[in-house]
Amino acid sequence: xxxxxxxxxxxxxxxxxxxxxxxxxxxxxxxxxxxxxxxxxxxxxxxxxxxxxxxxxxxxxxxxxxxxxxxxxxxxxxxxxxxxxxxxxxxxxxxxxxxxxxxxxxxxxxxxxxxxxxxxxxxxxxxxxxxxxxxxxxxxxxxxxxxxxxxxxxxxxxxxxxxxxxxxxxx
Length: 171
Fold this sequence. Notes:
Helix content: 40-55%
Shape: globular
Structural class: mainly alpha
Strand content: under 5%
Number of helices: 5
Largest sheet: none
């Protein structure tokens, strides 16, 4: 699988184009930070106080965050998925034995689903999920949050990757 392009939006692009381009760039950084990782390294714990914060765990988390915000909160679909399992803390990051390549593919597929949902809505459209306060967020709010969320975890992957093998770099 090739990583998506890491391209910043044009300085004079309209709001929607900028929001989508910044989100796409942060998503691409998730893939970039995983390039060349072995299966063992993808699951290796490098931050003892956060044993689930592995490259594999972070990719899985991002897949489920996409699902949560676009399918559940915006579209009002059932609150299904590991992040809604209250019996297991951080269930979306528990991916022992799941190959990184599979997790990256699932993340990419989930982003494609999110992109279809985004394309079908206006920035001011509000979520339909009535079981959660966040279900009232507009698409604009969700996009801004997803840029922040994805960027934050891309930063975590920066640290994890550097601790694993010394690889650094933003582009």
